[in-house]
Amino acid sequence: MRFTTTLAMANDTIFGKILNGEIPCDEVYSDDLCLAFRDIAPTAPVHVLVIPRQPIESLRSAAASDQTLLGHLLLVAARVAKQEGLTDFRTVVNSGEAAGQTVFHLHVHMIGGRPLAWPPG
Ligand code: 5GP
User: Domain total for the chain?
Assistant: First the structure.
């Protein structure tokens, strides 16, 4: 089943409000498709979130037509890592509450600047 997300719903999330300028963010990259900004509660010296401008609730609700956009988000995460001077970094996409998703606007975490253990909790 495809989870549908309307623009109004997406704008109700914190990230929707960041995208429309209602809430400020520490931006590190922006283009027509996405915005990247520092996480407000960083878990590492570098913790950036890359979010699509298009509202997608979660990876679990992404469609085949989102393929190019999803690839773009990962490439932007790598670009920002380089920009931040990182050669080693982790990208994470939490999908659903039990997996740790708290903001229901798809986002890629890009985390680095310290050794990162595996597996995560
Ligand atoms: P999730 O838990 O959904 O995978 O990640 C949501 C992330 O958004 C968390 O790491 C949290 O710290 C971050 N976050 C929540 N509210 C804000 C905010 O208002 N501004 C910024 N920059 N990050 C936020």
Answer: 1
CATH of the domain at 93: 3.30.428.10
Ligand 1 centroid distance, CA of 64 (Å):
26
By most ligand atoms within 8 Å of CB, the mutation choice from 20, 25, 35, 40 for ligand 1 is: 40
Model pTM score: 0.93
Which residues lie with the beta carbon below 6 Å from any ligand 1 atom? 14, 23, 25, 37-41, 49, 94, 100-103
Write out the residue range of the structural domain in which residue 75 sits.
2-112
Check the CA dihedral 109-110-111-117 and report its sign: positive
Tens of pLDDT, residue by residue over 1-28, are: 344 444 444 468 999 999 999 999 999 9
Residue 103 lies in a domain: yes
Residue 87: name the closest of 108, 115, 121, 109 by CA: 115
Q: Is residue 89 part of a domain?
A: yes
